Amino acid sequence: MSAPYPPLSATLDRIRELIAICNKSHDEVLNVRRLSHLAGLSKSDVEILLAGGVPPETDPDVMVRDRVRFLYETHIGANGRRREIPSIAAGIGQTPTWTKKLVAGEAKPNILVGAQLADFYDVSPSFFTDLPAKALDRELQSILFDLEIEADPGRTLQELGVRHISGRSRSMNKGELAELAKMVANITDELTQVKNQMERLENPEGNR
Hints:
The chain contains 11 helices and no strands. The two termini are about 20 Å apart. It is mainly α.
């Protein structure tokens, strides 16, 4: 999505409001360990941000290297193990020797390698560069969206452009409407990705 995220404080206020509306567990929804894993932040930084504080500043180069190492160490493959260096190297188009230094935090990826690494691990392209508050806010958006769907799926469908659901909704329960809203959201997101890819292909000069 090209639209900017709201301030972290606003996102958290709305999530906490929806937690109460949906009768959810605060600790389960805002699980520090899971948010740390998703955002590439230390658990202490997540705790500070959730409490409304500001984590200690980190040099940008150090932050990027730390995020790469964090990704390698925590985002394991389907076999329950870290991805093999040769596999990562092939995925990002680099040598195994340099890739080993990269995931150890001894080398810093350039923009192209960073994008390829994010694609390899299926994380946000800004995973390595977002400052802590923005990184956490980025990952909270999916939590917020799911809560919005659960609280009021009909409204979410309208916001996604489904304007004529009300007449058919009488035969659908809230859970079914929520599943429909998630399906529409996934389709919308996939169409946006396709559109962005087509724009990059049509305008290669703008990608340099």
